[in-house]
């Protein structure tokens, strides 16, 4: 499937506003990939497919989570988290993506994980800081993300946890674990990674 075919299929799966967000995430992911010397091809594909399952029907998503042995804890948490693992599954099944790094970047772009590689961080932060995002702190997030992926991740995870906590919403355990991973790295004196 070429880029134009991929874009058309993605566009059909979401409202125009979400499609524009997706293009913004790709633009930002490509910028971060250039800065951090990551594959721009992988960054582009993961960014374009990161929200492909955002509007996937709940009943089908729930069925896939069960049938494909995805993390069963997802079913107890916000449906907003489901599209990441479902999206990784659909990227493989519908788009023929077999690269494990691309699939993992899609899978963890909402919750983070304790073993995030460069591409995972790029997609997570591109989603958080793309040009269409407008929330208090987004400019700081953009600045940090251009200087250090780890500093960007620590900031984004801290703000996400605070936001959900303020709304008294449950927070998926992987998000806490991911935050702790970056906080411990900084606390243990791996300062170079945060500058």
Structural class: mainly alpha
Largest sheet: none
Number of helices: 10
Radius of gyration: 16 Å
Strand content of the residues, in percent?
under 5%
Q: From N to C, what is the helix and strand string?
A: HHHHHHHHHH
Oligomer: single chain
Basic shape: globular
Mean model confidence by pLDDT: 96
| End-to-end C-alpha gap | 39 Å
Low-confidence stretches: none
How many distinct beta strands? Answer: 0
The amount of helix comes to 55-70%
What does this structure look like?
The chain has 195 residues and is mainly α. The protein is 65% helix and 0% strand. It is built from ten helices and no strands. Helix 2 packs across helix 7 (118-129), helix 6 (100-107) crosses helix 7 (118-129) and helix 8 packs antiparallel against helix 9 (149-166).
């Amino acid at each position: 499937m070429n880029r134009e075919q991929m874009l058309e299929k993605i566009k059909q799966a979401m409202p125009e506003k979400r499609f524009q967000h997706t293009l913004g995430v790709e633009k930002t992911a490509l910028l971060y990939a250039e800065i951090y010397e990551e594959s721009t091809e992988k960054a582009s594909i993961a960014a374009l497919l990161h929200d492909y399952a955002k509007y996937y029907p709940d009943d089908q998503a729930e069925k896939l989570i069960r049938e494909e042995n995805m993390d069963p804890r997802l079913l107890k948490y916000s449906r907003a988290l489901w599209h990441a693992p479902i999206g990784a599954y659909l990227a493989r099944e519908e788009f023929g993506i077999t690269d494990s790094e691309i699939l993992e970047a899609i899978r963890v772009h909402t919750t983070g994980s304790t073993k995030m590689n460069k591409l995972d961080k790029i997609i997570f932060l591109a989603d958080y800081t793309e040009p269409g995002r407008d929330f208090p702190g987004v400019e700081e997030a953009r600045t940090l993300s251009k200087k250090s992926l780890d500093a960007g991740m620590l900031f984004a995870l801290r703000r996400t946890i605070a936001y959900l906590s303020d709304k008294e919403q449950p927070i998926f355990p992987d998000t806490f674990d991911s935050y702790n991973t970056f906080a411990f790295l900084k606390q243990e004196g791996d300062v170079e990674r945060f500058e």
